[in-house]
Design goal:
The structure is a single chain. This protein has 405 residues and is α/β, with parallel strands linked by helices. It folds into two domains: 6-179, Flavin prenyltransferase-like (Rossmann fold, 3-Layer(aba) Sandwich), CATH 3.40.50.1950; 189-396, CoaB-like (Rossmann fold). Helix content is 34%, strand content 23%. It is built from 14 helices and 21 strands. The strands form six sheets. It has an eight-stranded mixed beta sheet with strand order 12-11-8-13-16-17-19-20, sandwiched between helices. The protein has a five-stranded parallel beta sheet with strand order 2-1-3-4-5, with helices on both faces. Strands 6-7 form a two-stranded antiparallel sheet. Strand 19 (364-368) and strand 20 (373-375) form a beta hairpin. Helix 1 (17-29) packs parallel to helix 3 and helix 4 (73-80) packs across helix 6 (105-112). The protein starts with 5 loop residues before the first strand and ends in an 8-residue tail after the last helix. The structure holds ligand PMT. Ligand PMT is lined by residues 193, 211-216, 253, 272-276, 278, 303, 305-307, 321-324, 336, 348, 350, 356-358.
Length: 405
């Protein structure tokens, strides 16, 4: 599958380095050429000999070691790479690259690399969440570096939280999807809604929900990678704009409705991941509401049902909805599928561990109009996005529309 592809793997000094041995082994089994560069600290965790044996190539750790070949190694490795994967990516390497420091074999190779560079961070939760690390990640993302989200779970330091290296299979799947990208949505125009909406109460307060936008942004980004022209209408989230996706930011459900409607005609597929508020306040107070009595009653009125309305105006478009439920997942989701005139609904039971709002993973059931259901195991939201798009490709293949109409 990866014949003719070269992956340079940069291993840093973290306990998760041992998992990267399996990543290298899996890449080799897919027939990729793999070259490993280790930092000095990485060699304290796993020996270069291990990576050498698994990768079938010499492992480079030292800039000034006696050269094994005539060429300048960091340049030749950087040139060879179709993808450079840094795993585990420590706070240190992220900080160095973000600051333009190139003082060892790995950092100089990254600096000289013109192919995509992907960081797979793994570290203690507090370190990962440290604003300095987050700012460095943001800076590198803006510069086009790719980041795989760490998993949440128990960590080697004895704590639990976000910061685990994703499982080797997940890392390899991501690498494969980048090296052999599907272009099966070429020429298709897809609109995606994402994130929460906010319904104002007064100038300082609002009603909203826990949607982070992660699921919707993953769908939009994957659709763009697969060749679609993507427009995303996003509620307020703190995620970076996905590459190659046109984004319009909105706040309330009414604004989202207006924005979706504005260009609906141009799009062939609409994927509605947004968690839209069903109600808004009747009349927003122009002044901050003061504490007076023991109770406060807010009067609310229905918001437009964007999915329902687009279902009514559907034509030959493909409409995909999402369904966040806490009970009766299948029945409630099937009712939404039918009442909103959708082709497919992606149902998630948000009470399940590892599913729903804010998480990096999701557990979904894809329900089709004919009643068939595909149950997917717990996966990263990026992987769920790919699965949903595979289903969309099948629907597109039924020839409901011709690209461009
Ligand atoms: O953003 P994340 O933190 O990654 O979380 C992901 C998610 C949990 C938000 C996502 O997986 C999800 O389930 N999204 C839909 C949430 C939801 O509000 O479902 P619903 O059952 O209320 O709505 C059903 C469908 O109708 C959805 O496609 C929704 O976008 C749409 N809808 C709902 C209400 C409304 N007024 N207009 C709509 O278009």
């Amino acid at each position: 599958m990866l014949e003719g592809k070269t992956v340079v793997v940069g291993v840093c000094g973290g306990i998760a380095a041992y998992k990267v041995v399996e990543v290298v082994s899996k890449l080799r089994k897919l027939n990729a050429q793999v070259h490993v560069v280790m930092t000095k600290n990485a060699a304290e965790f796993v020996t270069p000999l291990t990576f050498q044996t698994i990768s079938h190539n010499l492992v480079v750790t030292d800039m000034f070691a006696e050269p094994k070949t005539w060429d300048i190694q960091h340049i030749s490795l950087a040139e060879k790479a179709d993808l450079l994967v840094v795993a585990p990516a420590t706070a240190n390497i992220i900080g160095k690259v973000a600051s333009g420091i190139a003082d060892d074999m790995l950092t100089t190779t990254i600096m000289a690399c013109t192919s995509p560079v992907m960081f797979v961070p793994a570290m203690n939760t507090a370190m990962y969440e440290n604003p300095v690390v987050q700012r460095n990640i943001e800076k590198l993302r803006e510069l086009g570096y790719i980041f795989l989200e760490p998993d949440t779970g128990s960590l080697a330091c004895g704590t639990a939280g976000k910061g685990r290296l994703p499982e080797p299979e997940a890392i390899v799947r991501d690498i494969v999807s980048r090296l052999v990208p599907k272009r099966d949505l070429d020429g298709i125009k897809i609109m995606v809604t994402a994130g929460p909406t906010r319904e104002a109460i007064d100038p300082v307060r609002y009603i909203s929900n826990h949607s982070s936008g992660k699921m919707g942004y993953a769908v939009a980004e994957a659709a763009g990678r697969r060749g679609a022209k993507v427009r995303m209408v996003s509620g307020p989230v703190s995620l970076p704009k996905p590459r190659g996706v046109e984004v319009t930011y909105v706040t309330s459900a009414e604004e989202m409705y207006r924005e979706v409607l504005k260009t609906y005609e141009e799009f062939q597929v609409l994927i509605m991941v947004a968690a839209v508020a069903d109600y808004r306040c009747v009349g927003i107070s122009s002044k901050k509401i003061k504490k007076t009595g023991e109770r406060l009653t807010l009067e609310m009125t229905r918001n437009p049902d964007i999915a329902g309305e687009m279902g009514r105006l559907k034509g030959n478009r493909i409409l995909v909805g999402f369904s966040a439920e806490t009970d009766e997942l299948i029945n409630n989701s099937k009712m939404k599928l039918e009442s909103k005139n959708l082709d497919m609904i992606v149902a998630n039971d948000v009470t399940q561990e590892g599913a729903g709002f804010e998480k990096d993973t999701n557990i979904v059931k894809i329900i089709h109009k004919d009643g068939s259901i595909r149950e997917l195991p717990k996966m990263s939201k990026n992987e769920v996005a790919e699965e949903i798009l595979d289903e969309v490709v099948k629907l597109v293949g039924t020839g409901r529309f011709t690209a461009g109409n």
